Amino acid sequence: MRDRLPTTACATIHEHSLTVLSEIGMAVEHDAAREALDAAGATVDGTAVTLPPDLVESCLDDAPSSFTWHARNPGRTVTVGGDTDEQVLTPGTGARHVLSHQSGRSRATMADFEKLVRLAHVAEPIDCIGYDLCSPERFALGGNPGGFEDADPGYELLETLLTHSDKPLVGSARTAANARASIDMASLAVGDETPSKPVVLGRVHPRSPRRWNEPIVDGLREFAADGQPLIVSSGAIAGASAPVSLSETVVLANAETLFGLVLAQVTNAGTPVLFGYASTHYDPDAGAVAYGGPTSSLLSSIGVRMGQYYDLPARTEGGVTDAKTLGDQSGSESMRKLAGAFDSGADLVFNAAGLLDTYETISPAKFVLDCERIRDLQWSAGTHDTLVDSLASDVSLDRIRDAAPGDAFTDERDPSSVADAPSVQSETARRGRYTAWEDAGAETAVDRAAARVDDLLEVYERPPVDESVRHTLRDYVDAHADS
């Protein structure tokens, strides 16, 4: 394993980013945001905005190093950032298509959405639920990040999420309407109507290079005004919306992400911001962006390291792949992305499970397979630490001494009583003799994952919802859905 980006390299990225922000600047297509930036000390010339370094540094000081993300069920509430070693994992989001093991790929429906909500709720490695686990027809939010004017703000999606799960909510900050619905309904669900604490997470990113357009700034300002946490991340693409040089792409991505942080702090100092990049490179041979390749993992790890350099909570991407279906490519790319995410020390792993086809498709079977990958990585990390602790204590040699050479060990101890005994189990992998596998039906891991989906949905129990909360959410939807 290579050492993480050294502090000297972080300082270089930061200094170059300050130069981009102070001398080159960003386009901000939002009157109120430009006025707020101007009042804070920025230089505004039309839509062009540059930031003095002292304003950037001040805003970095204002952003907290951690926050508590409250769930409808207080037992599900999580802390993001700070001294905790825990990583918060979100399910895949945004796909317009669903890949069914039985019927193949099709346009997402509301029934698919409800199925994925139940699956995300019962999946143990997943800590949160997501606004657009998939995007049914009228909720589809195309573009990057614009063209949302005709999309439904998602009242029905939010009501389903908040009544079918009690995990923390990832909402939408893509537009003011999306943001307002996410904040209001999450606040109602936790009984905090004002709100006075973080109850929903939003995600914003500019249109690279260096453009912050009105819908996304609207969403950012709505979240920040109410002190709700935001993922701020550049999606600069080397060779498309950024230079082909990865070092230059990193500087652009870092500057764009810092600018979003400043926008949030100028709106409301102390707004929690998760720092990171959603960057990769453009593959000219494929004529497509390569999110499943190693470039994405590399740039994501640098984004996490810069978040740590700034003492901010850091985010990265999870099991994302460019593969169109389940197979070797989807497995290897997803495992590499997840392993990199865990190794980076990111506080939040976004899109951890389920996605295929560069965010276009979500698969319940892959959701299960990704959760198994996550459990394997968590087990490996935890058992590594336990093994190190065991080696540092008194290692008994009695059983090694008593066993005759070449004999099997007869260890009378219950493995559950031995701290570093192996205990990892797989729901989808099969081991043993070929003939035994063949006799059992020759199922593939994908077959077993699809069966596991059915098993999980069978044991799903809708978490209790206070009747007053249920009625309040329904009244909110009725009041806004047709307005």
Comma- or semicolon-separated keywords:
483 residues, alpha/beta, TIM Barrel, five-stranded parallel β-sheet, four-stranded mixed β-sheet, 15 helices
What does this structure look like?
By secondary structure, the protein is an alpha/beta fold. The protein contains 15 helices and 21 strands. It has a domain at 62-380: TIM Barrel. It has helices at residues 7-24, 31-40, 53-62, 110-122, 155-164, 176-190, 214-225, 246-267, 294-309, 328-344, 364-392, 398-402, 434-439, 445-459, 467-481, and strands spanning 26-28, 43-45, 48-50, 66-69, 78-81, 88-89, 97-100, 104-107, 129-130, 169-170, 200-204, 211-212, 230-234, 237-238, 273-277, 280-283, 288-289, 315-317, 348-350, 355-356, 361-362. The strands form 6 sheets. A 5-stranded parallel β-sheet has the order 9-10-11-13-15. Strands 2-3-1-12 form a 4-stranded mixed β-sheet. A 4-stranded mixed β-sheet has the order 8-7-21-20. α3 packs across α8 (246-267). The protein starts with 6 loop residues before the first helix and ends with a helix.
